[in-house]
Design goal:
The structure is a single chain. By secondary structure, the chain is of the alpha/beta class. Helices cover 34% and strands 19% of the residues. The chain has helices at 49-65, 81-92, 106-115, 140-154, 169-185, 202-214, 229-237, 265-277, 305-320, 347-350, and strands spanning 35-40, 69-74, 95-100, 120-124, 133-138, 159-164, 190-195, 219-223, 240-245, 256-262, 285-287, 294-297, 330-331, 337-339. β3, α3 (106-115) and β4 form a beta-alpha-beta unit. α1 packs across α8. It comes from Rhizobium croatiense. Keywords: Signal. Pfam families: Bmp (PF02608).
Length: 366
């Protein structure tokens, strides 16, 4: 497994954080005690979504180590002082491996790492790095490009939509790649976005989905919602929809287009292995299709066969590194050049993205 760079997301200063590869140099707890692993997440773990995907990523560790590890999952913890207090308590209680599952946990989690050099901290989508502190994120854009191709192929209106959590680079890149993938099939396609400014707000998510449907959008991307609200609303309306992180197909048996799923177990397992071996070294980790962390699943059979053939061809090229969704020419929504012809954005530029591509009709929030 490779670890090149960096969920919940890398702000513009991430570009200066640098890219690295993964593990080497840290010691651990007493050998006769089980390793305490604590996962803290901002929303309920439930049966779908981000928290669910993180929790599922720990299962192979439990299977591999058995009673040599003790796992604690603390869910629905808002970013801010409560999260800091709870994360500190997990370490005080003897957990030497902490997974801080939201971008807003960054400062508190980093302080814990600095105060406790024998504790290993993994942080979702931040940009800070320390000897025992690694941010991690997924290359969702690789999957959303492919689902954009599928969305364009099944769309009758030429209008697509996205209900998106926060206007942060990780989710901006997901929308942009979705748009570019759709334009590869239908160049004139347009994408409207509603930013709900929440990871978990079922009522607001449903309202946003219905608003997009009323505007003529006939495929909707649920971009980092931890509930199936958007997916269910689209099923009720007969509108295709897809999402990130974990499959929500059971909430939309007919109109589920697919899922950009994440499997964090390769990264989590390697990190625990390194911690126990005393060789962990903090690095900025950005994982995708090639790392078997990102995979598109549950493709809808309504996607035309010729489109699926092209999708599978590009999926293979993404995996072997011969294709990137962010290879130019790419024009920004304001008409200026985003990526020159023949150029490809580096990971550091992708994780700092603060602009939309041409075809996204909703301006970014100020």
């Amino acid at each position: 497994m490779s670890n090149d760079l960096t969920r919940r997301t890398l702000m513009k200063s991430a570009a200066a954080a640098g890219l690295a590869t993964a593990f080497a140099g840290r010691s651990v707890a007493a050998a006769d005690e089980p390793l305490g692993i604590a996962l803290v997440v901002p929303s309920p773990v439930g049966d779908v979504g981000w928290g669910h995907a993180l929790a599922a990523g720990i299962d192979p560790i439990k299977a591999a180590y058995g009673d040599k590890v003790k796992v604690t999952i603390i869910e629905n913890i808002a970013e801010g002082p409560d999260a800091d207090r709870i994360m500190n308590k997990t370490v005080a209680d003897g957990n030497h491996f902490l997974i801080a599952g939201s971008f807003g946990y960054q400062n508190g989690a980093l302080q814990i790492a600095r105060r406790n050099p024998k504790v290993t901290v993994l942080h979702a989508s931040g940009f800070q790095v320390a000897p025992n502190f690694s941010p991690f994120a997924a290359k969702y854009f690789q999957g959303t490009y492919l689902l954009g191709m599928a969305a364009a192929a099944v769309s009758k209106t030429g209008k697509l939509g996205s209900v998106s959590a926060f206007a942060i680079p990780e989710l901006i890149t997901s929308v942009n790649a979705f748009t570019l993938g759709a334009q590869a099939v239908k160049p004139d396609i347009e994408v409207s976005v509603v930013w709900v400014n929440s990871w978990f707000d079922p009522a607001k998510e449903q309202e946003a989905a219905k608003a997009l449907i009323s505007q003529g959008c006939d495929v909707i991307f649920s971009n980092a919602q931890d509930t199936p609200s958007v997916i269910s609303a689209c099923e009720d309306a007969g509108i295709y929809a897809f999402n990130l992180n974990s499959s929500m197909k059971k909430y939309a048996e007919k109109t589920y287009l697919g899922c950009v799923a994440t499997d964090w177990s390769p990264f989590f397992k390697a990190s625990v292995d390194a911690h126990l071996a005393g060789t962990f070294k903090g690095a900025n980790t950005f994982l995708g299709v090639a790392d078997k962390v990102v995979e598109v699943v549950d493709w809808n059979p309504a996607i035309p066969a010729d489109t699926m053939a092209k999708i599978k061809e590009l999926e293979a090229k993404i995996a072997d590194g011969s294709f990137s969704p962010f290879t130019g020419p790419i024009t920004k929504a304001d008409g200026s050049e985003g990526v020159a012809s023949g150029a490809t954005l580096a990971d550091a530029e992708i994780v700092a993205m603060n602009w939309h591509v041409k075809g996204v009709t909703t301006p970014l929030p100020k």
